Amino acid sequence: MPQEHTTTIDLSLVQNLILDILSQSLDEQSFFWAKEKFDKLQNEWDRTSFHLSFGMTSRKIPREKPIYQEEKRKEAEAIGKGWRPQLNTLDTLYRGLLLTTFVPESEEQAQSFLWDAFDTADMWEQISIFSILPVLPFPTAYVKLAAEGLRTNMAPVFDAVALDNPYPATHFSQDAWNQMYLKAAFVVRPIYRIQSIAERANEKLSRIILDYAEERWSAGREVSPGFWQASTNFLSEDHVKALRKLADHEEEMHRAVVQLIREENPQAELMDLELSLTQDWTWESLGESYHNQ
């Protein structure tokens, strides 16, 4: 089930944080343009002005990482659990800021506005839309839109929904979340960056993970070691057999899966295995090593 999410996020806190980041990261001329367009929409929202500013962002705001201080990370977490604006580029942050200027009166109005923005959006604009979802009003209105983003064949757009984003864990149904997790494996995305894997893991997904791994092995192919994380607390006898097979893998990253799983869910059938590991692994370090090799 989706996680409980009843807190209404104060948009002014979101806006002030993004403006602070932009003011520290942009040159004077770029920030003046950004602040002027934002203030105009805040004072008198107009659809035409919004679309013009949204579309012009790529010409005015650079696609660079922000200058980001640690206190801003903590501030973002306090505003919305799991929200990580520091991972976005400056143009993505600014488009997200523009999206917050529209304050809908109903879920239907919120949904209509964001679909309208999405329908004419290019790849970078779509990324901005999905990145700001966790802190927009009426968050449940955007579930179908987020699912649409996962159907894309553009990895950066898929990542904007699935990775480093609390929205799916908070609002997706079990089946929708499972499908996202599985597609991340299919298209070889860094699964360790999906938020709340332990909280959203479920028995149905664990069985699918095993079936997929066995299918890959039968074809002589490997499975991303991080893919097993969601099966940790749902181990059947068949899972144990598969993990014992992994314990004999020639590559340490695959053997490390067994160590991580039995640390979190001790199983007598796995505790006797000698894994011969040269370092202490976490799911994050495992994922980073696998995707950086």
Describe it for me?
- By secondary structure, the protein is an all-alpha fold.
- Helix content is 61%, strand content 0%.
- It has helices at residues 11-25, 28-43, 47-60, 70-79, 90-99, 107-119, 123-132, 143-150, 155-162, 167-171, 174-186, 197-200, 203-218, 237-246, 252-264, 268-271, 283-292.
- Helix 2 runs antiparallel to helix 3, helix 3 packs antiparallel against helix 5 and helix 7 packs parallel to helix 9 (155-162).
- The model has no long low-confidence stretch (mean pLDDT 94).
Q: Mind sketching the topology for me?
A:
Blueprint: H1 11-25, H2 28-43, H3 47-60, H4 70-79, H5 90-99, H6 107-119, H7 123-132, H8 143-150, H9 155-162, H10 167-171, H11 174-186, H12 197-200, H13 203-218, H14 237-246, H15 252-264, H16 268-271, H17 283-292
Helix pairs in contact: 1-4, 1-5, 2-3, 3-5, 5-7, 7-9, 8-9, 15-17
